[in-house]
Structure to design on (175 residues):
């Protein structure tokens, strides 16, 4: 069973609170650029396990499929600093029969300052053939339940999305 949570109980957005580790920082005391990926992917794995009861291992074992990264688009808006507590938000912003785009962003702990935005495009593949395969119904239902509604992804520009996230954060800070 890939998902233990009911579809109707699955939130669209997931958030984690993490601390920036000394070992992951450069001499300027900023999170090393390559480490952002580790923080984002580790947060997402924890989030989907906790919120949706999803296991990548179960997907691999039961369906003999997985998602592989096809493309990243990242913007380093402000540095994350050594020993700083940050919030990592992740959400699916697009999917089709064999593709999923996950949006990640990192903020300060108060969610008033945007630090980084990442879009990761993943392809759903058969582990036996390495070829793209359609999402099975169970995965398609999960994506339908958790994808951010109302985004016109094919016409969405990355820099416009950064601006929109900044506006979301500003609106949340003033509320």
């Amino acid at each position: 069973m890939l998902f233990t949570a009911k579809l109707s109980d699955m939130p669209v957005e997931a958030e984690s609170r993490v601390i920036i580790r000394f070992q992951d920082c450069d001499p300027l005391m900023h999170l090393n650029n390559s480490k952002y990926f580790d923080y984002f992917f580790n947060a997402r794995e924890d989030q989907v396990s906790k919120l949706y009861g999803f296991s990548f291992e179960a997907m691999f074992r039961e369906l003999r499929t997985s998602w592989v990264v096809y493309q990243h688009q990242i913007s380093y808006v402000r540095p994350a600093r050594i020993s700083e507590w940050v919030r990592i938000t992740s959400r699916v912003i697009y999917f089709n029969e064999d593709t999923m785009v996950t949006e990640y962003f990192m903020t300060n702990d108060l969610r008033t300052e945007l630090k980084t935005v990442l879009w990761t495009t993943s392809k759903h593949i058969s582990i036996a053939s390495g070829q793209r395969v359609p999402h099975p119904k169970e995965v398609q239902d999960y994506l339908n339940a958790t994808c951010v509604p109302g985004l016109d992804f094919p016409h969405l520009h990355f820099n416009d999305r950064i601006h929109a996230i900044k506006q979301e954060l500003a609106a949340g800070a003033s509320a």
